[in-house]
Amino acid sequence: RTYSGTETEGQLLNSFLQYFGDSLGRKIKRMPLIEETVLPGDSLLTLPVVIIGNGPSGICLSYLLSGYRPYLSPEAIHPNPILHTKLEEARHLSIVDQDLEYLSEGLEGRSSNPVAVLFDTLLHPDADFGYDYPSVLHWKLEQHNYIPHIVLGKGPPGGAWHSMEGSMLTISFGDWMELPGLSFKEWAASKRRNIKSDRVMPEEIACYYKHYVKVMGLQKNFRDNVYITSVSRLYRENDDEGGSHQNEDISTEHLEMEDGQKSLIKRNWEVRGYQRATDGSHVPFCLFAENVALATGTFDSPGRLQVEGEDFPFVLHSMSDFGAAISKGKLRGKADPVLIVGAGLTAADAVLCAYNNNIPVVHVFRRRVTDMSLIFQQLPKKLYPEYHKVYHMMCTQSHTVDSNQHSAYTSFPEHNVLSFKPEMKCVLQSASGLKKILKFSVALVLIGSHPNLFFLKDQGHSIGHHSNQPITCKGNPIEIDPYTYECTKEANLFALGPLVGDNFVRFLKGGALGIARCLAIRQKKKHELIESEDGGCDGVP
Predict the structure, then answer these.
(1) Domain that holds residue 318
(2) Using an 8 Å Cβ cutoff, are 44 and 292 in contact?
(3) Is the pLDDT of residue 422 over 60?
(4) Overall average pLDDT of the 424-438 stretch
(5) Residues 60 and 494 sit within 8 Å (Cβ to Cβ)
(6) pLDDT confidence bin for 264, thresholds 50/70/90
(7) Same structural domain for residues 57 and 114?
(8) Is the pLDDT of residue 434 over 70?
(9) Does residue 113 lie in a domain region?
(10) What is residue 40's predicted lDDT score, i.e. its pLDDT?
(11) List of E strands, 191-330
């Protein structure tokens, strides 16, 4: 194809070399980029798939789209006899080519997405019952199943794992963090890394993911230091009378500006953004895609209390900021305690971090210590002793146990933060309505995080289970078809991982399976349609 738009020379993205195979019928030696001034109607290459996010979700999806296919191993016997019988019925087919709804039927697990439960039980049979059975799958690389795609991420492959606090162990076992085709334990052994327990540090996982992309030959699909600014739908006029504008694409912005529109057909996606070059400059780009997969995770925007004074510089919202304050000695010798708000694992990490650095802690959270929804209630004591240490302090060192605050740690269950004051004081309110003022050295608000989908129309509020509300992992994940992971409210837009409620790596892999199967079916139908049209033309005298 001849590019009519001006291409920016010297851009890092232009080094993207990709063999698109038969689906596009030629080799592409240049990344389809345009200057931001080029109109979207210009003739440019359209990629079948653009994946936004290069964490484990994006990596796993790239692995499957690259042609890797899972088959039932010759001698494998799944411990679930009903599932094993189903697998035997189509042993000659890869799991991607089988009916996922049929295979998922009747399975139960710790994900609300049936394909996630299916893929997890194939990779880690009966893991929730404490068994360490090997996977019943083996993998084959089938080049003819390659679907052209590109994975865009802000940092190196591994996503947010590269920026997590390095001193804390992961909540999941190392085996559960691994991706298909590369054993984490074998990788660790080959790198002579001393893994002392089944749980590992985030930096180990981040290194594993980065290596995975390389060893699996996926690098050509990945681009780092990329920031997305806009993902919008292009439309095409459906003009029965024909005319000069019949095939002209119209962007959403143009669509909103024009009145009295003719009937329009939704077409491809326009993905705009910039890549940060080594000199710090921003290089703009624009891509066109038939399908977009959202794999951004939920670490973009820390949760906020939305109270007065939360924007003061001594109110922090991340473990990294807290760690930096400790390493710089800002809290050394402070008489006032650190105020930690939240009752999740990140808040517990902060308590441990402060405790280990001899920094006194005041711990504030809304729930009762006996609330069964607290994450600590779901963690076995033997596997997670450090978190149960925190939970024990939450229960036994409450401000109600002793009128005087404990020197090292004091908890305030069933309390809300009303405001932060400039003199580094905090106003708390108990469940009974009583107010209390506490002085602190620094406040750390750790109440979860939310995805930042600002690049979508209305920030993606229209694609959640609850329309016109922000997307959140627990309360309002993106609404998807349970077997294809396609957004129910927006065709050709897919989502996986925490965006659809799968926080754990072991479950997000199911999203990659569902999307890969859906796109494989559509690609096959597209090829069949093209072949039938070509055959029809050949038959015309």
Answers:
(1) 303-448
(2) no
(3) yes
(4) 95
(5) no
(6) low
(7) yes
(8) yes
(9) yes
(10) 39
(11) 222-223, 226-237, 249-250, 264-276, 282-294, 301-302, 315-316
* Domain final position from 448, 470, 502: 448
- In this structure, are 53 and 92 located in the same domain? yes
pLDDT for the residue numbered 407? 76
pLDDT at 532: 77
Q: Is residue 30 part of a domain?
A: no
CATH number reported for the structural domain that contains residue 340 in this entry? 3.50.50.60
Go through the chain and tell me how many residues it has.
Answer: 541
Positive/negative CA dihedral, 89, 95, 101, 106: positive
pTM above 0.85, yes or no: no
Q: How many CB atoms lie within 10 A of CB 370?
A: 9
Task: Write phi, then psi, for 277 (nearest 5 degrees).
Answer: -80, 170
d(CA 427, CA 436): 6
Rg (CA), the chain: 26
How many folded domains does the chain comprise? Answer: 2
Domain assignment present for 318: yes
Among candidates 224, 86, 63, 227, which has minimal Cα distance to 146?
63
The identity of residue 264, as a single letter, is L
DSSP state of 261: P
Alpha carbons 77 and 57: distance in angstroms, whole number: 28
Phi, psi of 418 (to 5 degrees): -90, -40
Mean pLDDT of 411-417: 96
| Alpha-carbon separation of residue 445 from 260, 306, 368, 433, 436 (angstroms) | 49, 11, 18, 21, 18
- Residues 496/508, Cβ–Cβ less than 8 Å: yes
Q: What is the pLDDT of residue 102?
A: 97
> Are 350 and 475 part of one and the same domain?
no
In the chain, the amino acid numbered 298 is: T
Pair 458, 435 in one domain: no
As a whole number, the mean pLDDT across the chain is 82
End-to-end CA distance of the chain: 29
435 and 469, same domain (yes or no): no
- For residue 157, the model assigns a pLDDT of 86
In the three-class reduction of DSSP (H, G, I as helix; E, B as strand; rest coil), residue 369 is classed as coil
**What count of Cα atoms within 13 Å lies in the side-chain half-sphere of residue 255?**
18
Distances (CA, A) of 268 to 287, 289, 482: 10, 6, 23
What is the token pair recorded at 354?
A: 């402060």
Q: Which one, of 95, 165, 83, 63, lies nearest residue 125 by Cα?
A: 83
The domain that holds 472 is classified in CATH as 3.50.50
